[in-house]
C-alpha cells in the first residue's frame, strides 16, 4: 500500500477505539490498538521508520474491529498478537513508555503500577493516563487490601506495617489473613482489570452514599472522585466481556444490511476471553429466502443474512460450543442443523452475552461514516476540509512568565505529539504576544525547521484584536493559512470577513471549542511551570521574600532583566538593600 491508499482507507474508519491489522494475503503483518482507529491508521501514511515503511508497502489491505473501550482493545490486541504472531509486532509491541498494572507471580501477589513488570507477572495495560491508573490502584487496595510492598519489606516481618494500620493492606505477611482468603481478594481485583467495573464501583458507591448520609461530606466527595475515576477507567459500560469461569468456545454473530450489501461481524471467545474477530461481506445474490428460493427485498434482512451466513460459514469449519446471535435466523432449518451438531444457539437478552452481541452489532454496522464536524467546519468557513487544526493561546501574569501554546488536532482528535510551546517576550500586551507566537510558527514552517505538516486552519483564542495580530504575523511572513478566532465570553466565531454566532449545538462549534480550550489549558499549564521556576530562582536568594520578588519582577519584567540590572538599579527597588543587591548579583 502507498501513502494515498492508507489515507483513503483511514477515511473510511470510525473515530472510536478498536484494533487494526495490516494484512498481506492470508498473513497478518501487524496488529495494533487505537483510541481512534481513523487517526491512528492515517499516521501510517507517513511512517517514522524504515521498518514500518516496509511493513506498510507489503500490506495489501487494512482490517479493523471496533470495541466499546480502550481496555477491550488492549485485551483483543494482546490475544491477536499471541494467536497470529505477526512479524512486525516482535519489536514494536514492547512499549515501556506507558504504565501497566501488574500482579506479581507470588503465592501472595502484590499489586503495582510499573513500566517493566517482572517475569511471570500478570499485567494489564498499557494505559495512557498515569494519574487515573494510580487513583484506581489506590481504590483497589482500599477495597481489597492487597499488598504493594517489595519482597524485601514483605519477608521476615513479625508485625504488620503502616499500610495495615491505614486499612490498605490485610497483612498476609504476618498471617492476619489466610493465603486462600487473600487469593479471593486478588481474583476480585483482577476481574476489575479484565473489564468487570462493578466489582469495584459498586462497593465504592455504597461507601460514598453511607458517608453522605452520615454527613461526612468531605469523605463522600473523595469517594465520589475515586468512583468517577473507576467508572471512567474502562470507558462506557460496566459489564465484563471476559469471564474466566466460562470454558466454552463461543461465536457471536450480528448482521447489518445496506442496500444490496450485507455485513456479518463475528467475535470468537475461548475460555471467556475474546481472542479473534472477523467481518464478512455478503452480496444480495448470496442471501436466500427461508425456503431456499432467490433473494427478495423482504428476504434481504439481518435475519435472512444470518441464516445464509450460518449455513455457508459452518459447512466447512469446526463448530463452536455456542453461537450467540443478534436475532433469530430466518431459516429454522439452519438452527435445527446447528443444534443437531451440539451447538447451543441463543439470542441473549441481558448480561455478559448480550454485551457481546451488542459489540458484534457495533462491528457489523461500522463502515466509517458518521457525523463529520470537521467537514461541517470546512463548509461553514468556505475552506477545504480542515483535517489538521492548530490552536494558539498566550498566558502570562501582568506581563511576566509570558508563554504561548500551539496545540494540534487531526480529524477532530488531539494529536498531543504535535503540541508545541514557547516562552515569549516579557510584556503585558496580548496582541503583541499573539503576533510573536504566530510569527514564530510561520517562520519555522517556511524555513523547514518545524517537522510537522502545515495546518489546514489556525484557531486563535480571542477576539478581533488577537485575530488581527495573528493575520499581521501571517502577512509579514507570507505564510498562507486560513485563520479564525473564537472569543470566550459569547462563543463568537471571528473571521476575517466578520463575526458570527453559530448555534450552541453545532458540532463544528463544539470542535472549535475543544481546540480553543485545549490551547488555553496547555498555555496555562506552561505558564504555571515557568512562573514557578521564576519564583524558585528568586526565592532562593537570601533577603528576597514574596513581596520583594513581586517588586523586582514588576520593575524589571523578568529574571533575566534582574540579572542584568546594575547594583544601583536594584537598590532603587523598595525592600532591596545593599546586602540583598550584592547577593542578587552574586547568585544570579
TrEMBL record:
Q: Chief subcellular site? A: cytoplasm
* The protein's name: UvrABC system protein C
State the Gene3D superfamilies in the record: 5' to 3' exonuclease, C-terminal subdomain, GIY-YIG endonuclease, UVR domain, UvrC, RNAse H endonuclease domain
Q: Which GO terms describe its biological process?
A: nucleotide-excision repair; SOS response
What is annotated about its quaternary structure and interactions?
Interacts with UvrB in an incision complex.
Pfam families referenced in this protein's UniProt entry, alphabetically: GIY-YIG (PF01541), HHH_5 (PF14520), UVR (PF02151), UvrC_RNaseH (PF22920), UvrC_RNaseH_dom (PF08459)
Q: Which residues form the UVR domain?
A: 198-233
Q: Which NCBIfam families match?
A: PRK14668.1 (NF011262), uvrC (TIGR00194)
Keyword tags: Cytoplasm, DNA damage, DNA excision, DNA repair, Excision nuclease, SOS response
Quote the function comment for this protein: The UvrABC repair system catalyzes the recognition and processing of DNA lesions. UvrC both incises the 5' and 3' sides of the lesion. The N-terminal half is responsible for the 3' incision and the C-terminal half is responsible for the 5' incision.
| Record-annotated UvrC family homology region profile domain positions | 252-474
Its source organism is: Halorubrum salinarum
**Where in the cell does this protein reside?**
Cytoplasm
Into which family does the record put it? Belongs to the UvrC family.
GO MF annotation terms: DNA binding; excinuclease ABC activity
The record ties this protein, via HAMAP family, to: UvrC (MF_00203)
Identify the PANTHER family for this entry.
UVRABC SYSTEM PROTEIN C, UVRC/OXIDOREDUCTASE
UniProt GO cellular component terms: cytoplasm; excinuclease repair complex
- GIY-YIG domain: residues covered: 15-90
* SMART domains in alphabetical order: GIYc, HhH1
